[in-house]
Amino acid sequence: MFKTFKHTLLSLAVAVSCTAAGAAAAQDIKPRLIRFGYGLNDDSVQGRAARFLAEEVTKLSDGKMKMRTFGSASLGSDEQMQNALVGGVQEMMVGSTAPLATMVKEFGVFDLPFLFNSDKEADAVLDGPLGQRLLEMLEAKGLVGLVYWENGFRNLTNSKHPVVKAEDLQGIKLRVMQNQVALGVFNALGANAVPMPFSELFTALETRTVDGQENPVTTIQSSKFYEVQPFLTITRHVYTPWVVLASKKWWDTLTPDEQELIRKAAAASRDFERKDSRADSEKAMATLKQNGMKINVVSEAEVARMREKVQPVVDKYTQELGPELVKELQDEIQKARGQ
Ligand code: TK8
User: Fold this and answer.
1) Which of 16, 35, 78, 142 is most buried when burial is the number of CB atoms within 10 A of its CB?
2) Ligand 1 centroid to 210 CA: how many Å?
3) Nearest-CA neighbor of 185 among 235, 246, 243?
4) How many whole angstroms from 39 Cα to the centroid of ligand 1?
5) In a domain, 152, yes or no
6) Which residues form the signal peptide (predicted)?
7) What is the mean pLDDT of residues 79-107?
8) Residue 306: pLDDT above 90?
């Protein structure tokens, strides 16, 4: 009897160690091709981070999973790619939060002006419970939100004259991102706001279909807007995040190991991208100056006047987006500010 017991124990131990070794050696990862699209050109923060992400996926999967990156909106504008992901005809992308607001209106909170003061505050809110909850809201719409990259604090450029005060925006045809909040805010500031996909923007500026636009300095530099926009006003009016997205239809076909791998690679890309974006901002400012842009920084007193001007539309959109959500966002920013 003792012998049988010992034998049973032994075979149990063998069985347990076999399963453990098997799971560690061969994760459930299949050969996959992932198409990853983005709107900026290859030589941009987005391009560099996309290549980093692709390499990370290769590394973690021992080359089984391959990511092909497509820049310059060659797979479509942010909106078009979002739809392709929902339809399951494209696997992944990165794009701004603004056009996501047409699917999950709450993403419009990031277009409310003058909320964040620093990238530290933005990181804390985005990586905190509120940012994560917004990502989860995408699932019901057919998208998996993985991580936030930094697009950054937006500034104004135009081809007419320096913008020193809000009144200088009067009559300026200004391209804005495609959602109600962005449109309402810039109209309230006195501009003539024109919603348009980013992919059409350079040509629109060049042909003077629009007079101006707003984007972080990294994008103004990498998209060469300085060639067609002599005036830059540092306003930092909005902090726009980018979201790395996967098609839910496609995501559901992945094994848990594959999903975890993509999540891990995405988290690494976020850290890489934010660091790169912040370093690149300083370089971009220098390049813009060298290329002859006339740069002014809007004064604090003027920001206060702009805030006053937009307050009625901020109140209106706060009601539409959800007063509790906006309050929570403001509280989280305050908390991050105190730390
Ligand atoms: C790139 C856009 C861009 C955004 C915009 O596809 O639309 O102005 O700032 O980064 O997402």
Assistant:
1) 78
2) 16
3) 235
4) 7
5) yes
6) 1-26
7) 98
8) yes
Q: What tokens does 223 get?
A: 């998209």
Inside any domain, residue 275: yes
Indicate whether residue 155 lines ligand 1 (CB < 6 A).
no
Provide the number of structural domains found in the chain. 1
Confidence check: pLDDT of 110 > 70: yes
User: Does residue 39 have its Cβ closer than 6 Å to ligand 1?
Assistant: yes
Burial class (CB in 10 A: 0-12, 13-18, 19+), 51: middle
Within 181-321, strands assigned E span 192-195, 212-215, 231-234, 239-247, 294-297
pLDDT digits (tens, 9 = 90+) for 171-201: 999 999 999 999 999 999 999 999 999 999 9
For ligand 1, atom 4, the nearest C-alpha belongs to: 96
In this prediction, residues 292-315 reach a mean pLDDT of 97
- What whole-number distance in Å separates Cα of residue 316 and Cα of residue 195? 19
CATH of the domain at 129: 3.40.190.170
Atom of ligand 1 nearest to the CA of 178: 7
User: Could you list the residue range(s) of the whole structural domain that residue 296 is in?
Assistant: 32-337
Average pLDDT, the chain: 93
